[in-house]
Amino acid sequence: MALVIAVDGPAAAGKGTLARRLAAHFGLPYLDTGLLYRATGRRVLDEGADPADPAAAERAARALDPADFTRTDLRNPPADAAASKVAAIPAVRAALLDFQRGFGAAKGAVLDGRDIGTVVFPEARVKLFVTASAAERARRRHAELAARGAAPSLEEVAAEMAARDARDAARDVAPLAPAKDAVLLDTTELDAEQAFAEAVRIVESLQSK
């Protein structure tokens, strides 16, 4: 099997930045699987439907096209909440599973999300679970939103992230949890360079086994 690096973890832990850098470093394609769920949720919102409605969410997932992934409104609190809700629907996850597996199967890939190591590629040799404290993740997300000029308060961001964490951990299908053989990487006290260096060390160590 081609090298697949599964990078899972909660929002704002730094997994997206890390996964993109790992892909460039190891010469692998990169897929942010969260965009699939964000785009699905945004399509449902555009229809004026409820992202928790299974029929509307599955319809949106099956109608995705490449243009959906380039939208500029996929990373804000409404999109965060919608993505979390559609991701809890089994039919949505089933609709998107083949796409994710097909992306990484042929040439290998780095995929980041919430169930890459547990569901999408449980056989992957390299699995990272990237996390950070709730306070640090809220601070990072607030700074990210503020840089775009439309940030709610830090308290609002923290409350929304806590609600999303609870939904992701409690859902019946593919709940957010580390794979049993994943290596935990806590980035709370690490800057981007330190996190990247540690991730490269972990990947190279696992490859050599």
Automatic annotation (TrEMBL):
Domain Cytidylate kinase as annotated: residue spans: 5-204
RNA-binding listed as a keyword: no
Alphabetically ordered keywords of this record: ATP-binding, Cytoplasm, Kinase, Nucleotide-binding, Transferase
SUPFAM superfamilies assigned to the protein according to its UniProt record, in alphabetical order: P-loop containing nucleoside triphosphate hydrolases
Catalytic activity: CMP + ATP = CDP + ADP; dCMP + ATP = dCDP + ADP
Enzyme class: transferase
Molecular function terms, GO-annotated: kinase activity
Highest taxon above the source species: Bacteria
Binding locations of ATP: G9, P10, A11, A12, A13, G14, K15, G16, T17
Keyword field contains Transmembrane: no
One matching Pfam family: Cytidylate_kin
Record-listed E.C. numbers: 2.7.4.25
Regions that span the bilayer: none
Major subcellular site: cytoplasm
HAMAP family reported for this sequence: Cytidyl_kinase_type1
Family stated for the protein in its record: Belongs to the cytidylate kinase family. Type 1 subfamily.
Protein name (Swiss-Prot/TrEMBL): Cytidylate kinase
Taxonomic path: Bacteria, Pseudomonadati, Pseudomonadota, Alphaproteobacteria, Acetobacterales
